[in-house]
Amino acid sequence: MSAAPPVPPTQERFAFIHILRGVAAMLVVWSHLSGFWLLSNGKVSALQDIWYQLIARPFHVFQNGGHLGVVLFFLISGYIITHTSLRETARTFAVRRVLRIFPPLIVATVIAGLLLLVAQATGTNLLGINGGGPWHWISGGFLLDGFFAEGRVIDVTWTLVVEILFYALTLALLVLSRARPVLGTWIMTGAWAALWVISLNIGGALGQNTGPALYVGFLILGRVIYLWQRGFFRPLDGALAASSIVVLYLVFAETADPGFLLAPGGWVGLEPIVTYAYALIIFLGFLALAPKRAVQPFAFLGDISYSLYLLHLPVGITVLNLLDLVGVPETVNTIVAIAVSVGVSWLSYRFVERPTQSLARRLTRKRGVQDTQEKA
Description:
Layout: H1 15-41, H2 46-56, H3 66-85, H4 90-122, H5 134-140, H6 158-172, H7 174-179, H8 181-200, H9 204-210, H10 216-229, H11 235-256, H12 272-289, H13 298-325, H14 330-365
Helix pairs in contact: 1-3, 1-13, 1-14, 3-6, 3-10, 3-12, 4-13, 4-14, 8-9, 8-10, 8-11, 10-11, 13-14
């Protein structure tokens, strides 16, 4: 039951969310441009070895930290999308999410295609990028490339499918969530469970695109944390909802891949369930600290986090490959690749993300809808 009647949230920015976006993005970038590339090419970097010896191995960080970054992104999105959805109309919500997700994705897909040509010309392997025919590349800009045998154009975009599924559930329950957010959350949880059960029994391309539904649970958990913090959930009800989602996720994950949660795995041979605990501790810790502002460089990294997430594979791997061809040491190679990825991502943020977000605000203001300041 709801502890208080829903009140549309006031305009505000969440500094802790912005900081965590920057942290999550850099975890994913580090994971791919250090551990992933080195492992795939049989190379060793002093920086990666230090990270592994001091952080990844003793703290059991799955996939070199990349999976931790992804789970943090999901919790962030569930929290902030719930906040914005409680004060946006269905039209506003849909327009802003579409213009948030797809313009940077289309640009990243074009860049990936151009850099794949560079990789082919230099005889290198552009890890995480999958070629194919024209329709495969066009579909990649609209998250339809999961239906192609070649796989996703940019491997990391599977997480955007998770986001879209959560957006769809949020949009479908938008009216109910304003009146009865707790009931809306339980219905969303049931819909997620049903979608996951269905996905287990679907093969082929459709199954490939519903498979990521497992991770929608983390976004719903972010929603519960937001509603609990804002007083919509009573403490015991919030604890019940959160624990139910966690238990369902663990059961679903174990059903899909028995032994996955506790068995050593990933790029550095460590258990994923430990990483999930870290993600919750870090998220709740930053929420409790409630910093007043996002300090640098986290504010900057938070701004460019979406473009950085999309572009670090094609841009960063290309830089790693080219510098490796001329014999640049692995440690220097990694630093340069990360720096170039950050620079290109800032250009995408400046000339793609910001203009399209401004367009979204103008389009939705035409009907008198209040502007939100969150970059959700």
